[in-house]
Write a structure and sequence with these properties.
The protein is an alpha+beta fold. Helices cover 21% and strands 40% of the residues.
Length: 284
């Protein structure tokens, strides 16, 4: 076994099963890692079954989208995305700017969409008061952001299966449990309540810090956050760590609703199941 680092191959398979034949469907897949300063996407491939021609574009938030429609009767829809990515760790949180810098009209106008609550990140008055208290105790926004992340993780247990994709931050808070998506949504809600621009990040996480080269493991679709304090800082509130080589970015937005791996509309009977499989191999 060796310390983590290098190149990852990721295979993500997802799709829908229907109660009967669907005549047509129109879909968008957000499953391919981005090419950016912290990661280099070496190759990508998206396969659809039944076969369909895909169109690739970049959405408003900067995520790569594969759009396709299936115009033949089908009872199963499957999308398989494969990518090879060279990753590097993100910069650790620095001092960042002062509170007065975040309060300028230019900053609030530039990042207004990451300051406003959404249906999945809205917090109540009690949580807003907690955010205000943590802000008052912090000399700088970065210090406050780390305190908020730690507070959420202390209060909310990571419990797979306790929520679903449409669970809001408040629902997860009230039951004090959730998954990475919920912990990220709640962290975002408190960050925004404290006046810190913050965005949701969707991607993959290799589960092992000591990863054997060539070994295939069951990976995870994962979520974390980025806050702006002079520059964007990436942090994983579920694991309470800065983003590492094991994190692979697929997309960003205000919340999960901006970056679902697969969504669409169709004509036909109800969907009965959605399957997800993620396989990750460290190549070097």
């Amino acid at each position: 076994m060796s310390a983590f680092g290098g190149v990852l191959r990721i295979r993500h398979r997802t799709g829908f099963k229907y109660a009967g034949a669907v005549n047509s469907s129109y879909n968008e897949a957000r499953m391919i890692p981005l090419a950016e300063s912290r990661q280099t996407t070496l190759d990508t491939q998206v396969e659809v079954w039944p076969p369909a021609r895909t169109q690739r574009y970049t959405d408003y938030w900067g995520t790569q989208v594969f759009a396709f429609d299936v115009q033949v009767p089908h009872s199963v829809l499957t999308v398989t995305a494969t990518a090879t990515v060279d990753t590097r760790p993100a910069e650790p949180p620095g001092l960042g700017v002062a509170w007065t810098d975040l309060q300028t009209e230019a900053v609030r106008d530039r990042w207004c969409e990451y300051l406003l609550p959404t249906s999945l990140t809205t917090v109540d008055d009690e949580l807003a008061a907690t955010a205000a208290e943590l802000r008052a105790q912090a000399q700088r926004p970065t210090e406050c952001a780390l305190a908020i992340s730690g507070y959420v993780r202390e209060q909310v247990s990571y419990l797979p299966g306790s929520t679903e994709v449409h669970t809001s931050a408040l629902q997860a808070w009230r039951q004090r449990s959730g998954v990475c998506q919920d912990i990220s949504h709640l962290t975002l809600g408190l960050l925004r309540a404290a006046g810190i621009p913050a965005r949701y990040v969707s991607g993959y996480l290799h589960p092992h810090a000591q990863a054997e080269i060539g070994a295939s493991v069951v990976g995870q679709s994962h979520a974390w956050v980025e806050w702006w304090a002079g520059a964007w800082t990436a942090f994983d509130p579920t694991n309470q760590v800065p983003v590492t080589e094991r994190h692979v970015v697929v997309g960003r937005g205000r919340d999960y609703g901006d970056v679902p791996p697969l969504k669409g509309v169709y004509a036909g009977p109800a969907s009965t199941a959605q399957g997800v499989e993620v396989e990750i191999v460290r190549l070097r």
